[in-house]
Design a protein that fits this description.
STM4215-like, two-stranded antiparallel ribbon, 3 helices, elongated
Length: 137
């Protein structure tokens, strides 16, 4: 399992999130047939923590998680559920050993999404998370 799959599985294991998005959590781009509300995310950066002896088994990754909904009230609720599930998390994500997950930033996203050749009004909130996890080097 990779860290991305661990994040998706962890988010979907919470009934409040699953009741809002079903299984609709996508990595990077969202499919054109996505139905609001949904979540997409991407890895912003990753690095290996270094020690005097060279690379340690600890990695640091930054992820941007985007929540989308048809109205601002719903996107606020979805983003709050995601924050409650991830911020401060310090247990495994699947078979990935996690030291800690910390939300470091949050903000609104532009409110139009492309759907084929048309535009759909949507409300978005992005959350940036820093994750320290054990990586077999």
């Amino acid at each position: 399992m990779n860290i991305e799959t661990g994040i998706v599985d962890h988010l979907l294991s919470f009934p409040a999130i699953r009741s809002m998005v079903g299984n609709d959590i996508d990595m990077q781009l969202t499919p054109e047939d996505a139905v609001l509300p949904f979540i997409n995310f991407s890895r912003i950066s990753s690095s290996q923590v270094q020690s005097m002896a060279g690379p340690a088994r600890l990695a640091e990754s930054r992820f941007q998680i985007n929540c989308w909904a048809a109205n601002y009230t719903d996107v606020l609720q979805l983003a709050e559920y995601v924050r409650r599930v991830l911020d401060g998390h310090d247990a495994d994500l699947g078979d990935i050993t996690v030291q800690v997950v910390t939300m470091i930033d949050q903000g609104d996203l532009p409110t139009e999404l492309s759907e084929g050749q048309s535009r759909v009004t949507a409300y978005g909130i992005r959350q940036d998370y820093e994750i320290f996890w054990e990586n077999d080097v």
